[in-house]
Automatic annotation (TrEMBL):
Highest taxon, organism lineage: Eukaryota
PANTHER family: 3'-5' EXONUCLEASE ERI1-RELATED, 3'-5' EXORIBONUCLEASE 1-RELATED
Keyword Coiled coil applies: no
Pfam families reported for this sequence: RNase_T
Stored SUPFAM superfamilies: Ribonuclease H-like
Tagged with keyword Hydrolase: yes
Lineage: Eukaryota, Fungi, Dikarya, Basidiomycota, Agaricomycotina
Keyword set, alphabetical order: Exonuclease, Hydrolase, Nuclease
Gene Ontology MF: a single term: 3'-5'-RNA exonuclease activity
Organism (species): Rhizopogon vesiculosus
Name of the protein this chain belongs to: Exonuclease domain-containing protein
Domain Exonuclease: residue ranges: 26-263
Record InterPro entries: 3-5_Exoribonuclease, ERI-1_3'hExo-like, Ribonucl_H, RNaseH-like_sf, RNaseH_sf
Length: 292
DNA sequence: TAATAGGGAAGTAGTTCCAA
DNA sequence: TTGGAACTACTTCCCTATTA
């Protein structure tokens, strides 16, 4: 009954339904931006300064849960005022494009969490009273770090417990693209970057390497640009490291994975109680331990 | 002070080839 | 036929990059 709408020709010429059974009703695509200083790495107490989320839903989900068309139905975006180090570094402003004035006039993280919870309740994802999930939704991010690191750190610094609606299921989009790319290796070599004599010194005394140049390819880490390229999508739209632009491009990747029949299910986890070396009492950053 | 994926190096076992 | 060298395929371990 759906075939005339949702099928594509197979290599044998037959029509086949490519819709995969999708257990989740909605996806929250998140790509936070956080404070940073050049050379400090990611063990530093980064504070979230932008909270952008694209809410995606199925256009064509059947009663059995089969679907392939995913679209953005709403967006939430808020800048966040850092409290531990309210002054942004020049490096951070250059990287993210976020200005000091934008964070100065922004609400603090606990306020943003409350506003975002209202956004979720408005869309029927959580209960407005208790904040408990009502529908099945899954968080999506580029790599597992946004929630695993930045949200956990920010909740510690802001002295707020991690809300129940963010402790749920997490899909690392990068990992999904990588898995899809591996499964379809014969069909695409888009992200294979050939490296010849730069990587392998040619030694004519070695018969293994003599003669024709070896066909050695090295898989690069799948940044967002390469994920788009691997899926045959147009290049990144907007400004890289702008949270909302990153989230929108991530949503494009999600939609393409869905269209290609990838089952969108969690593949990452978080540890809400994880501690970093600079963590003192709740909310306390042990500056004496920081390697500035 | 973390988890993870991926690449490179090194080691090992099996196969092939060739001279004695 | 045999022993040794060369080659290939595979596994394991270690290191690096990743995330602002």
């Amino acid at each position: 009954m759906y075939h005339h709408l949702y099928s594509q020709p197979s290599s044998s010429g037959q029509q086949q339904d490519i819709r995969e059974k999708q257990p989740y009703e909605a996806f929250l695509v998140l790509d936070v931006e956080a404070t940073c200083r050049e050379g400090t790495g990611f063990d530093w107490p980064n504070e979230i300064i932008e909270w952008p989320v694209c809410l995606m839903r199925w256009k064509d989900r059947s009663g059995e849960g089969n679907a392939s068309q995913l679209e953005i139905v709403d967006e939430f975006r808020s800048f966040v005022k850092p409290t531990w180090r309210p002054q942004l570094s020049q490096y951070c402003m250059n990287l993210t494009g976020i200005t000091q004035a934008q964070v100065d006039s922004a609400p603090t993280f606990p306020v943003v969490l409350k506003r975002f919870a209202r956004f979720l309740a408005k869309h029927g994802l959580i209960g407005s009273e208790n904040g408990r999930p009502i529908q099945r939704f899954c968080w999506c991010s580029d790599g597992p770090f946004d929630i695993r690191h930045f949200v956990v750190k920010q909740c510690f610094i802001s002295r707020v417990p991690m809300p129940p609606w963010i402790r749920g299921d997490i899909l690392d989009v990068r990992r999904s693209v990588s898995s899809w790319e591996t499964d379809n290796k014969q069909e695409t070599t888009a992200v294979e970057v050939p490296i010849y004599s730069f990587a392998v010194p040619l030694d004519i005394t070695d018969s293994r390497r003599a003669g024709q140049l070896p066909e050695i390819s090295r898989r690069q880490p799948l940044n967002m640009h390469l994920q788009l390229q691997a899926l045959g999508l147009p290049e990144f739209q907007g400004r890289p490291h702008s949270g909302i632009d990153d989230a929108r491009n991530l949503a494009r990747i999600m939609a393409e994975l869905a269209r290609r029949g990838v089952r969108l299910i969690p593949n990452a986890s978080i540890r809400p109680n994880r501690r970093w070396y600079w963590m003192g009492r709740p909310g306390e950053v042990r500056e004496d331990l920081l390697q500035d």
